[in-house]
């Protein structure tokens, strides 16, 4: 009976074992470590199946494997039996399947996942997310570019899944998103404690051309270069250095963008409050040139107070010249305050006003008629420009070049660089003009020669040339021409050939033309005038005396 019972039990157990389903290949099963040898763990997965797994599959990146006999683990059953009759199992694939299930749920819930960066690949890094490998783009490592990722390798930290595709086995994660989120929370907390006008201490984190970023304890504020000091600051590094602790004032807080504007100069006294008192109009001060532009130069009167010397106020004489040709950066100059606009914080300065107007000085030292000497600076179609004392020019008009030649001809005798003498004829200070005359150097010979001669005067001239149309005569060195019709009252005597060179002839002056420098002369007019005078003296036309009698009496009287 006992034997029959044992047979029945065995049969029941055998049937039970047959009825039990063997695990499917490609599924995750539980197993127990029964031995560790030769760098492998031997695992009993039940169903009278054992398999081997390399110990490295039990280790996290950068860590030693932690596995021992008796430990229960989950493995992936790749095949029920290999050539050696062993199950083909994988701990890594089991972890991956487990990880994907977990990561898909986290991705759906937009939750953070924990992982460790363990390798570097093109364009970024590889991250172990507890069995699944993800890609971390270089741009998603930190909020700012990371030059050395060494300290982050193997460190367990949170990541955000940006994208995942189980079929292709692709996962993309971001560390930056986590940092930005925590940073935003921290910023919101810090900003919530700040109000505009607060004075706080901060540490200079970064310096740029336009300002500096200051850490206020978890949140950065921008200290713009224009708010660092009342004076001009060319570059923030002039007064700040990275790591320096500075006291700043909160100027503005943008609650939406969490941007904070800071200022340092607001904690100092505004020098513009006393500008009108310190620098009254028309006062002269010494300043330093801080910047030069095409339209003028900025001059610092004191730290924080700058004024502009416009190019038109830089020099009395140098027009259309770049300011850099007159002054240089850092040069000390004397300037006059011309205008102050406190509202716009502007001061207009003058450089030339600290020196006397050279045209005024010239007018005082060179009255009209003064002889001057200078170099021909320029020759134009209307005259010469002569360089004079005080770096100013005077002009000799074509009409003032010569008494005898036309101006267009006389100007051909001059070249740039010639040193010439001239006489000051006029100085117009307001228009900044000086008129000179070269022909006036020897005086006006015509005026001297005809000084006592008037229209109607009788003068004696010398015949210097005989021509068909008349005769050329000379009076006190001044040449004139008497036309044929003016040679005699009698038409038959109007013959030039009856005169000879060297003859002295009495003539009547009919015109004195100072502009053309000519005397109008006539023998005929003299004869007519003499006849009228004789008639008035010795008779009249109604007295019965003939003209011959009157003239005869006049001739006898003359004898």
What does this entry look like structurally?
There is one protein chain. The chain contains nine helices and 30 strands. By secondary structure, it is an alpha+beta fold. It folds into six domains: 23-94, Nucleic acid-binding proteins (OB fold (Dihydrolipoamide Acetyltransferase, E2P), Beta Barrel), CATH 2.40.50.140; 110-180, Nucleic acid-binding proteins (OB fold (Dihydrolipoamide Acetyltransferase, E2P)); 194-267, Beta Barrel (OB fold (Dihydrolipoamide Acetyltransferase, E2P)); 279-350, Nucleic acid-binding proteins (OB fold (Dihydrolipoamide Acetyltransferase, E2P), Beta Barrel); 358-437, Nucleic acid-binding proteins (OB fold (Dihydrolipoamide Acetyltransferase, E2P), Beta Barrel); 445-539, OB fold (Dihydrolipoamide Acetyltransferase, E2P) (Beta Barrel), CATH 2.40.50.140. It has a five-stranded antiparallel beta sheet with strand order 3-2-1-4-5. Helix 8 (523-538) crosses helix 9. The longest helix is centred in the first third of the chain and has 18 residues, at 2-19. The mean pLDDT is 82. InterPro entries: NA-bd_OB-fold, Ribos_protein_bS1-like, Ribosomal_bS1, Ribosomal_protein_S1-like, S1_domain. Belongs to the bacterial ribosomal protein bS1 family. This is 30S ribosomal protein S1. Pfam families: S1.
Summary, kept brief:
By secondary structure, the chain is an alpha+beta fold. Helices cover 18% and strands 38% of the residues. InterPro entries: NA-bd_OB-fold (IPR012340), Ribos_protein_bS1-like (IPR050437), Ribosomal_bS1 (IPR000110), Ribosomal_protein_S1-like (IPR035104), S1_domain (IPR003029).
């Amino acid at each position: 009976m006992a034997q029959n019972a044992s047979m029945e039990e065995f049969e029941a157990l055998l049937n039970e074992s047959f009825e039990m389903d063997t695990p499917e290949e490609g599924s995750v099963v539980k197993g127990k470590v029964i031995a560790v040898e030769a760098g492998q763990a031997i695992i009993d997965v039940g169903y009278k199946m054992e398999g081997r797994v390399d110990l490295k599959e039990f280790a996290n990146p950068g860590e030693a494997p932690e596995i021992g006999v008796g430990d229960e683990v989950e493995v992936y059953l790749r095949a029920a039996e290999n050539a050696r009759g062993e199950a083909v199992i994988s701990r890594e694939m089991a972890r991956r399947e487990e990880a994907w299930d977990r990561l898909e749920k986290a991705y759906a819930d937009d939750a953070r996942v924990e992982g460790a960066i363990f390798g570097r690949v093109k364009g970024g890094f590889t991250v172990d997310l507890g069995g699944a490998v993800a890609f971390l783009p270089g741009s998603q490592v930190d909020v700012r570019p990371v030059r050395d990722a060494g300290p982050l390798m193997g460190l367990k930290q949170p990541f955000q899944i940006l994208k995942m595709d189980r079929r292709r086995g692709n996962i993309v994660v971001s560390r930056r998103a986590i940092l930005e989120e925590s940073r935003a929370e921290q910023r919101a907390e810090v900003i919530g404690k700040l109000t505009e006008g607060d004075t706080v201490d901060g540490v200079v984190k970064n310096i740029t051309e336009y300002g500096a970023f200051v850490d206020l304890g978890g949140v950065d504020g921008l200290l713009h270069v224009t708010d660092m000091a009342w004076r001009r600051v060319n570059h923030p590094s002039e007064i700040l250095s990275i790591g320096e602790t500075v006291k700043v004032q909160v100027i503005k807080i943008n609650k939406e963008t969490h941007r904070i504007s800071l200022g340092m100069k607001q904690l100092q006294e505004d020098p513009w409050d006393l500008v009108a008192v310190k620098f009254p109009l028309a006062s002269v001060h010494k300043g330093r040139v801080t910047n030069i532009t095409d339209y003028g130069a900025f001059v610092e009167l004191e730290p924080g107070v700058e004024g502009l010397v416009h190019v038109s106020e830089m020099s009395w004489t140098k027009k259309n010249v770049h300011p850099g040709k007159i002054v240089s950066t850092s040069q000390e100059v004397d300037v006059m305050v011309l205008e102050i606009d406190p509202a716009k914080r502007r001061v207009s300065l003058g450089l030339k006003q600290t020196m006397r107007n050279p045209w005024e000085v010239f007018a005082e030292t060179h009255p009209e008629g003064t002889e001057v000497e200078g170099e021909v600076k320029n020759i134009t179609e209307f005259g010469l420009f002569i360089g004079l004392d005080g770096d100013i020019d005077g002009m000799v008009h074509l009409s003032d070049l010569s008494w005898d030649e036309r101006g267009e001809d006389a100007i051909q005798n001059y070249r740039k660089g010639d040193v010439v003498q001239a006489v000051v004829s006029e100085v117009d200070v307001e228009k900044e003009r000086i008129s000179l005359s070269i022909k006036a150097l020897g005086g006006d010979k015509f005026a001297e020669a005809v000084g006592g001669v008037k229209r109607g005067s009788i003068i004696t001239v010398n015949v210097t040339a005989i021509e068909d149309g008349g005769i050329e005569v000379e009076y006190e060195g001044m040449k004139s021409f008497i036309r044929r019709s003016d040679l005699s009252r009698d038409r038959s005597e109007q013959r030039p050939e009856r005169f000879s060179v060297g003859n002295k002839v009495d003539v009547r002056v009919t015109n004195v033309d100072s502009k053309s420098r000519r005397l109008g002369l006539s023998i005929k007019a003299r004869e007519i005038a003499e006849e009228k005078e004789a008639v008035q003296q010795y008779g009249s036309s109604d007295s019965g005396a003939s003209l011959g009698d009157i003239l005869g009496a006049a001739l006898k009287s003359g004898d």
